[in-house]
Amino acid sequence: MIAFHTDADIAGKSKFFKILISLFLVLSAGIIMSGILYYRSHEKEIRHNSEDVLRSVAQLKAEQIIRWRRERLGDASVISKELLFLESADAWLCRNEKTEQIRDRLLNRMEITKQSYGYQSLAMLDNAGNVILATDNSSILIGPQVFRLFEKAMNTGEIVFGDSFICSLSKKIYIDIFAPLIVQRDEKTESVGVVILRTDPYEFLYPMIQSWALPSRTSETLLVRRDGDKVLYLNELRHKAGAALSFSMSISEENIPAVRAVMGQEGIIEGNDYRGVRVLAYIRKIPDSPWYIIAKTDTDELFASLQYQGFIFVFAAIILIILNGAVVLLMFNIREKDFYHKLYKNTQLLEGIFENTPVLFAYLNSQFDFIKVNHAYAKADGHEPSFFQGRNHFDLFPNAENEKIFRQVVESGEPFFIYAKQFEDSKQPERGISYWDWSLIPIKDHSGSINRLLLTLSDVTQRIRTENALRESDERFKNAFDTAAIGMCLVSLNRQFIKVNRSYCEIFGYSEQELLSMDIHEVIHPDHSDADSDNMRRLRDGEIPYFYMEKRYIRKDGRIIWGLLAVSVVRDEQNKPLHFIGQLQDITARKTAEEKLRRAKAWAEERSHAADAANRSKSEFLANMSHELRTPLNGILGYTQILGRDDSLTEEQLKGIEIIHQCGRHLLLLINDILDLSKIEANKMELEPTDFSLLSCLSSIVEIIQIRAQKKEIRFTYTPSADLPEGVYGDEKRLRQVLLNLLGNAVKFTQKGGIELRVNLSPGPSPKRRGESPPSPQGCSPPSLAGKGAGGLGRILFEIEDTGVGIPYEKTEDIFLPFHQIRDKETENEGTGLGLAISQKLVRIMGGELWVRSVPNQGSVFWFEIYLPEITWKTISNIGKPKKILAYKGKKRKILIADDVLFNRIVLRSPLLKMGFDVCEAVNGQDAVAKAIEYQPDLIFMDLMMPETDGFEATRQIRQIPELKDMMIIACSARVSNQTREESLAAGCDDYISKPVDFNQLTTLLQTFLKTEWIYEEDEKNISQTSVPMQELRVPPKEEIEKLFILAMKGDIRGIQKQAEELQSADSQFTAFGKKLYHMAKDLRIKEIQKLISRYKDERDE
């Protein structure tokens, strides 16, 4: 047995191992990425909550500081404006009335303010800044900083709020407020002194700033201001003792929140605090002051919970990756067993090809001893294959030149090819000289050593003889110029004859010498001279590649003749014109006969117009009939799809609905066949090639035919070539149509035995088209695959063989005629007789020809070969049977259906309502425009043929309305021509769907344009299995559901828990519902809550 397969199979095995490794890596990466995404999502949530807390704390502290400052300013304002106090101060300070009574009055008033509002002390200064009276003389020391603020209050007459400072006397921190004492003198105001209100920030301000509402080990609030090129901390710090007004940092350290605060930044920031620890902080400026409040917390504290979760994830990921690796290893072991089984089968297949191919094959060892030859090789030498086994090639066929070639191949390891080598058979001299293509291919073992040679020989004698015949034909053609039946000439650029042939001389009656001395205008009629010159100028300048003219000429004898002239120009390598080539045909006789034919031509034109009108009428009739038939079919097929999805129907009823649906689909196929035939006959059928998976296409066709064959209890076999390309470029729809038609006929006319579909790469050019050479009585065999090259030039051969009734030879031409049917007692009256006619024409459009070979009562073979170029294709695994769609996720979507036919609207409305869409309807185009403005739908299904205003015009009007210009519009029509589709897209539609509307196509469009995420029946079951059964829940009233819906959409967990508790206490019948909702909120299952509440809300709305 020959093992040509070893290296390729090992490569395939290695490829599979790489695929498994890739799968393992992809799954492992998916596990890791899932954990990372979860980690980041949770981190983002923690950060968001922390930012809210910091923002709230900072805002609260800022408002408290602002309120505290306003109260201090209010106290100062009261003293500054109190008339009795001003009168006493004026008497004491200015009028020198320093009585005991006035002194006591002033001190008592200041003491009251001190005791009532918690001031450290109050002091009254005269206009020179001297302390006149004080509640506590020992605490008032007027330093330079205090004096500057005193002067400001005196000069401006306004209250001055001082900043915090360290008293040089007491070494304590104080904040002073300066209240000027202003009296009225002769319509003038005069500042007679200032009252200083001194407060200790340790009494209220610092404790208020340092307090934190929530338990935390690192959170704190800071009050800072800028002090030159530094930022000064005004209050005591949690993590640094004695920092108030004594601790500062350079503003060059921009990563510190305090520095960024004094630089003017506000809001949430992340940076390092005064300890160098990473913190999250919120900054706010205190209005009308140089102060900034900062609330901060260490990021380590904020994200401490994430570290534990990260450890859990890493452990789980390692376990999952180990399990993943175990599964991959198991798959590899299973594949290993399957590999050796297939290896044996492939060996058997290659053995069969080796033995049965007409190409001569010989298998030799490195010493050129025959190991095995095929039957073709043995037959060519007149022996049996066993004769060669063990014999040396050059003992049987001694040839020194060939032996040298053999040894070079063994030494170099490179294959050797030679084409069309001449050979004369000494054993059979009557055969004459023959020509052979032969090759010698070295085969290496696992170690890389050459231990085998594969010798192939192919007889190309006929091809060489054909090429020689073509070469002789070219030689004969070179002599054609001089003997041509039409006149030929070469003319220079200045219009002088250079060369003329014999026929040209005969046309004009001149000799060759006479014409070579003449200008071409001497033989041209004057009426055509200007036009001829202009055309030759344009030809010379490259404006036109050639020109034709019918014009009159003047013969030597003066007779006027008509000639048909064709002129082109010869150019050099620089594209410069060299001379003109003219071909002239005498058409005088034709011109003479034209007058006689004028009436006949007019009659023919009249008949042609009539035929065109008939064709247009036929096309319009077919289009209208298609529209009229598809409209009721839309209702029939639409309702069968609606009823087919009804779970309440019995199996018997569903079978009846399926029969109706299949009959409707059959009628639709008949309509499509008639339209296709009409398009083909009118030369309007165009292919729509795309990239598609050939193997997937064939698999789906095989599944359909397999079901039909099983119903008739006949065998169906699918035999694809192993080297078929996965992806090809072509018209998948038309290829599928042809194959389903041919296979459907095979099933129809086969009562016993079986059917086989064979698909292979073609070895070369396809056979001649049917009609160019009629088939022989035995039929024409499809081209053999023997000896095909790798890839086969991209042509693929499809063969359908059956053991059916067969076709008589005299009828093999008739079966391709439209409406022709083969009559059989078991298949009579089935179909329209259009299938083979359409299939033959489609195959021709795709560049092939449909052939047939048939023997009555034995069966038939249909085959065709078309060009399907291979493309790179990425395989996408099959997801499986589509699941039943129940609804969609997300907000309620609105859809407008515009159609003047009621049942067309019902067919669309019913499934849309069941899936949860909000549906509105319009009965014509004008109504559709009005409803679109009022209803503001997310998508419109627009019928194109409606009364008053059609769908085209309605679409254009909607596109002109600014707020509706981006609205999605899907055209619906029973007309299925490309022209209708293009017109709808040109009018502004986003896509097109034909009637009858297919449910799967409908859901695909909805998913494409509305980005819907479907809820399938399986998903609904999974939810119910983990939830309290529906029948055990009493759902609250609509008003409560609306409240819960709003809370769920906001993601307000606490609000949902509170509402759930209220439901439990309000009414016992809602206890189960409230408990379920409370626990879901407690587990933070917000997505499930939104889905649950949305479902109950939709039920209440309905």
Structural account:
47% of the residues lie in helices and 22% in strands. The protein has 1102 residues and is an alpha+beta fold. The protein has six domains: 52-300, 2-Layer Sandwich (Beta-Lactamase), CATH 3.30.450.20; 357-465, PAS domain (Beta-Lactamase), CATH 3.30.450.20; 474-587, 2-Layer Sandwich (Beta-Lactamase); 687-763 and 794-822 and 832-873, 2-Layer Sandwich (Heat Shock Protein 90); 885-1023, 3-Layer(aba) Sandwich (Rossmann fold), CATH 3.40.50; 1031-1098, no CATH class. Strand 20 and strand 21 form a beta hairpin. The longest helix has 76 residues, at 6-81. It starts with 5 loop residues before the first helix and ends with a helix.
- Give me the CATH fold name of the largest domain: Beta-Lactamase
Number of strands: 36
Strand content: 15-25%
First-to-last CA distance: 74 Å
Q: What would you say the CATH architecture of the largest domain is?
A: 2-Layer Sandwich
CATH class annotation of the largest domain: Alpha Beta
- In spatial order, strands of the major sheet run 8-7-6-11-10-9
Note the total helix count: 32
This entry's quaternary arrangement is single chain
Q: Quickly count the domains.
A: 6
Q: Determine the fraction of residues in helical runs and give it as a percent range.
A: 40-55%
Query: Which superfamily, in CATH terms, is the homologous superfamily of the largest domain?
Result: PAS domain
Quickly describe the structure.
It is built from 32 helices and 36 strands. The protein has 1102 residues and is of the alpha+beta class. It folds into six domains: 52-300, 2-Layer Sandwich (Beta-Lactamase), CATH 3.30.450.20; 357-465, Beta-Lactamase (2-Layer Sandwich); 474-587, 2-Layer Sandwich (Beta-Lactamase), CATH 3.30.450; 687-763 and 794-822 and 832-873, Histidine kinase-like ATPase, C-terminal domain (Heat Shock Protein 90, 2-Layer Sandwich), CATH 3.30.565; 885-1023, Response regulator (Rossmann fold), CATH 3.40.50; 1031-1098, no CATH class.
